[in-house]
Amino acid sequence: MQVPLYQAKAEFFRMLGHPVRIRVLELLQSGPLAVRDLLSEIEIEPSSLSQQLGVLRRSGIVVSIREGSTVSYALAGGDVADLLRAARRILTELLAGQSELLAELQQAEFQPALTPGGADRRP
């Protein structure tokens, strides 16, 4: 039995749902990086990074490149970078909306509270 598309999408987004994986993908947008460079940027234990890279590699989002004793990782395609840019735009819009709401709430804090008839309720 084939997995429904919506379920496959949910599993895809669940796979992306780890901060280290997102950070790795962000770093790889500029090109392949050696594991040692990823470690210096992310500052986690090598075993944790290895585990997260394994998840990304098995999903097909990243590929590993071995050159001698050095292992580097790269994005498997440009669509992942597009997805990360889209996520950044969406978050920017959401946070902008929240900051506008915050500004409205802060402004309302300094305005007098009016009764339904328009009279000031302050003593």
Automatic annotation (TrEMBL):
Keyword set, alphabetical order: DNA-binding, Transcription, Transcription regulation
Pfam families: HTH_5
Position of the signal peptide: none
Residue stretches making up the HTH arsR-type domain: 1-95
InterPro entries: ArsR-like_HTH, HTH_ArsR_DNA-bd_dom, Metal_resp_trans_reg, WH-like_DNA-bd_sf, WH_DNA-bd_sf
NCBIfam families in UniProt: HTH_metalloreg
Protein name: ArsR/SmtB family transcription factor
Lineage, top ranks: Bacteria, Bacillati, Actinomycetota, Actinomycetes, Kitasatosporales
